[in-house]
Every structure is written in C-alpha cells, then in structure tokens.
Amino acid sequence: MTKHGPILPLWLCETCHRPWPCVPRRDELLGEHADTPLSLALYMGACLVSARTDMSWAPPEALRHRFLGWMP
Ligand SMILES: [Zn+2]
Predict the structure, then answer these.
(1) Is 44 contained in some domain?
(2) For residue 12, what is the enclosing H or E element?
(3) Which candidate among 10, 17, 44, 56 keeps its CA 20 to 30 Å from the CA of 4?
(4) Total-model pTM
(5) How far is the CA of 57 from the centre of ligand 1 (A)?
C-alpha cells in the first residue's frame, strides 16, 4: 500500500504534500504497471477526469501535463 496517495479534493500527496502524483508515486506507478502500461494510462486518465472536476479552477492543460505528461 502506497504512502503517497492523494488527499482529495486538493490532489496533494498525503506524505510529500506536493501535487499528486508526486515523484515517488510516479515511480511506484511505473513499477506497478511495468507490464501493463495501458492500464496505467486508463487509471491516470480516470484520475485526470476526477481532478478536473475537483479543481475546476486549474488550467486544463496544466492538469493534463501533471497527470499524463510524465508517462513514457
Ligand atoms: Zn508523495
């Protein structure tokens, strides 16, 4: 179980207190989904949809980059 889950609806890491997914969580997700990159993309896409609702004040492009831009 990760220590780097998001605090909702702010989407801050519960451990780092940085915007989620924080760097440690990104590394964990890449490891957990090393053989299933598509499921990681689907998961992060679902997170992005929720985050857009929770943070309707945030620029959509910034959220897209934050949630999807770090994946290989
Ligand atoms: Zn973290």
Answers:
(1) yes
(2) strand 12-13
(3) 56
(4) 0.93
(5) 23
Q: How far is the CA of 29 from the centre of ligand 1 (A)?
A: 12
* Tally of structural domains, the chain: 1
The answer as to whether 28 is a domain residue is yes
Counting DSSP H helices and E strands in the chain, the numbers are 3, 2
Is the previous residue joined to 6 through a cis bond, with omega within 30 degrees of 0?
no
Structural domain containing residue 44? 6-68
CA of 38 to the centre of ligand 1 (A): 23
Tell whether 13 is covered by a domain.
Answer: yes
For 8-33, write each residue's pLDDT tens digit: 999 999 999 999 999 999 999 999 99
In a domain, 1, yes or no: no
